[in-house]
Design a protein that fits this description.
Layout: H1 2-24, H2 27-36, E1 48-50, E2 61-63, H3 67-76, H4 82-104, H5 107-131
Antiparallel strand pairs: 1-2
Helix pairs in contact: 1-2, 1-3, 1-5, 3-4, 4-5
């Protein structure tokens, strides 16, 4: 179902950003991963405790995969713009990961491109069906 797909994509996207940060120390990777996984208005009813964004810090912080997560939450609670938020997250993720996947052919950008393609198919189809 769409809410479950959105929550799964939120976790995968946030996980990809966290993995990119851990492997390379890339702040843009974690910022993009958590931002695409996120959009802070009515956050979903779950939070993931993880280390903060600063390297070598041990203080806990709460990060929420919110853009896909918010889309899933809004779909689940039948609030407006849930499908649109999840589709927007897919467009943003595809715009950043597909060119990188084509250029580097590394596993993480390719995997995130697959996640984006699934989101475009799932939420694009639902959005298009709702218009007709």
């Amino acid at each position: 179902t769409s809410p479950n797909s959105a929550f799964l994509l939120a976790a995968l996207t946030a996980g990809g950003g966290i993995t990119g940060y851990i492997r390379t120390g890339s702040v843009p990777s974690i910022a993009a991963g958590l931002t695409v996984g996120a959009l802070v208005n009515n956050p979903p009813p779950f939070f993931i405790p993880v280390a903060p964004l600063r390297p070598n810090s041990t203080n806990p912080a709460f990060l929420s995969p919110q853009q896909y997560g918010l889309g899933g939450y809004r779909i689940q609670t039948r609030q407006p713009y849930g499908i649109e938020l999840a589709l927007l997250a897919s467009v943003i993720l595809a715009g950043s990961s597909v060119p990188r996947a084509l250029r580097t052919q590394k596993l993480l950008p390719v995997g995130l491109s697959v996640v984006a393609a699934y989101g475009l198919w799932e939420f694009g189809g639902r959005w298009n069906a709702g218009r007709g």
